[in-house]
Amino acid sequence: MSSNYPDIERFRSALVQSIRAHWVLFLVEGLVLVVLGLVAIALPPIASLAVAILVGWLILISGIVGLVTTFMMRHAPGFWWSLASAVLAILVGVILLGWPLTGVFSLTLVLIVFFMLEGVASIMFALEHRNQLSGRWGWMLASGIVDLILAALILIGLPGTAAWAIGLLVGINMLFGGSSMIAMALHARATDPAASAPAPRPTV
Q1: How many other CB atoms are there within 10 angstroms of residue 69's CB atom?
Q2: CA gap 190, 184 in Å, rounded
Q3: What is residue 158's three-state secondary structure?
């Protein structure tokens, strides 16, 4: 176990040096994410449609790649199952791209199930480990309860909530992700000795 520590330290050092060397790129990326997150929060229906279209393209491309590889290996066992899987992915991708509103509704149902499972798992974990987690188990319990409340609110508001739920959550995620990248870039800028060092005097 201890033999891995030098490798971990080298990886961390390389990561820090990379962030310091390219802090401007991290700052720009963070700003872009913040702006996109604010737009998604302000216009969640558009963001929801964008997510559905993106997922549709991903599934369609994966289905096409799967279809090509299936025929390239048509003599391998399980050919028909692989073929059926690829065709199904292509059909789902076409449906999501052709009727993105239907895709938004389906993705919202998946989101509800995710929040329900995540909430129950968080609550059970908090209750089972409340002795070991001391004061922190209450926060985990509260997080699980909030997940269940969100799932209930989205479920009760269907189909209206399907128009904004995914876009709003994606926007919040991008906003927090972008903010963390900005903070990381500014911290790297402040601790970069090359950036804070005075410029060399020109030689005569």
Answers
A1: 13
A2: 10
A3: coil
**Contacts of 66 by beta carbon, 8 Å cutoff, 6+ apart:** 82, 85, 86, 89
Q: What is the pLDDT of residue 113?
A: 84
What's the token pair of residue 57?
Answer: 């393209």
Given its phi and psi angles, is residue 121 left (phi above 0), alpha (psi -120 to 50 degrees) or beta?
Answer: alpha
Q: Tell me, what's the pLDDT at 120?
A: 86
Which tokens hold the place of 201? 């005097």
Give the type of residue at 187. Answer: H
Burial 153-183 (b: 16+ CB within 10 A, else e): ebbeeeeebbbbbbbbbbbeebbebbeebbe
Burial of 70 (0-12, 13-18, 19+ CB in 10 A): buried
Instruction: Dig out the tokens for 104 from the structure.
Output: 């938004």
DSSP label at residue 43: S
- pLDDT means per 10 residues in the chain (204 residues)? 58 65 79 88 85 83 84 72 81 81 80 82 75 62 81 83 81 80 77 53 54
